[in-house]
């Protein structure tokens, strides 16, 4: 009996020991599996955003640096590891490249577009995500929001909010006692004074077609908002012609006849350098080139003024617009992260530094940086009612005007030839949009 009890006790002890070992092994096994599961759940999601920023190569450093800040924020807040496949094609080719990509399904997650030129057709084609419910929409300054909205929907984030006309060298004007002219006759007098003092009046940089194209919004805008209010409506209904506003050529002729040489050898970058170094007193160019100019000569003192198009001072007006804006297509493969990036573009703190570094105007209610002197120059005219919203002209017409005005400068096309080309292109654009 004693032997049996001893054997049973021994067996029981062995069982308890085995059971404890089994429980410990199971616990260890369970702990290891739990750790593996926890490790798997904490692994970051990886996303590559395809970014298409046409005509913004001069700001590559600023954008690339800002995108890295976004990547850090997205990793910390959402555990998403974001990398970027960024393209910066030139301004002349970017619109067509982008349209081809969107039409063929090779869709970038975030892309730039011209708010005035491209937004209506892109919206109609279904390429623009509605951003109205995004936090960014409530931050956009009230006066700018309509410029990035269609059908009361915010469809893009404004980058370059512009008040522009032509650029002039304030030092040269001051030295010669000149003020920005408000009529064509006054501009002719300014030109003569400059020439009498051995100063070239205008910088010509026609290597890239988009630069001579700038004459179109400046001349059409001034004339439509003063003496020809129905011109755009008539053109949109195939009832008008540029022959009705052919006085636009008067200022173009004055510039071409009193400009620097080698116009077709000078593009935007070279033009910025030459203007910064005082090669000419005036340049038909926008304030978006401020950063490029000041990189060459940080002491350059330039201003902006309305371009006179005739002898009616009421036709000399500042063009107020949003050129570059950012958008997300509805079929983006990474829409959630792309929308996060657009919201970060107007981040309350970080975006101040971004916009200021590119010499852009404030566009957010939370932007606190002081406007630049050239912005204040334009504001003098805007506050007096001497401004207009960038005229809505089909992109194809603007593109054609750049090429046609190159040929006009080179005397390969006459006024009549340019008028026929622009009329024809506008009618074709109307037919394509029906």
Can you tell me about this structure?
The chain has 434 residues and is an alpha/beta fold. The protein folds into 2 domains: 45-160 and 323-360, 3-Layer(aba) Sandwich (D-Maltodextrin-Binding Protein, domain 2); 163-321 and 375-432, 3-Layer(aba) Sandwich (D-Maltodextrin-Binding Protein, domain 2), CATH 3.40.190.10. The protein contains 16 helices and 14 strands. The chain has helices spanning 2-42, 60-78, 94-104, 119-124, 170-175, 184-196, 215-224, 231-236, 248-257, 268-276, 290-296, 335-345, 350-357, 373-383, 395-409, 415-432, and strands spanning 45-52, 80-87, 110-114, 149-150, 153-154, 157-158, 161-164, 166-169, 202-203, 282-283, 302-305, 318-322, 324-327, 387-389. Strands 2-1-3-13-6 form a 5-stranded mixed beta sheet. A 4-stranded mixed beta sheet has the order 9-10-8-11. The protein has a 3-stranded mixed beta sheet with strand order 7-12-14, sandwiched between helices. Strand 4 and strand 5 form a beta hairpin. Helix 15 packs antiparallel against helix 16. The N and C termini lie far apart (107 Å). Residues 1-32 and 34-40 have low confidence and may be disordered. Keywords: Signal, Transport. Part of a binding-protein-dependent transport system for a sugar. Belongs to the bacterial solute-binding protein 1 family. It is found in: Cell envelope. Residues 1-18 form the signal peptide.
Major sheet, described briefly? Answer: 5 strands, mixed
Structural class: alpha/beta
CATH class term of the largest domain: Alpha Beta
Instruction: Write down the overall geometry.
Output: globular
Q: Radius of gyration from the CA trace? A: 30 Å
H/I helix tally: 16
SSE ordering: HEHEHEHEEEEEHHEHHHHEHEEEHHHEHH
For the record, what is the CATH homologous superfamily label of the largest domain?
Periplasmic binding protein-like II
Kindly give the count of domains.
2
Q: What percent strand?
A: 5-15%
CATH topology of the largest domain: D-Maltodextrin-Binding Protein, domain 2
Name the strands of the widest sheet in spatial order: 2-1-3-13-6
The overall strand count is 14
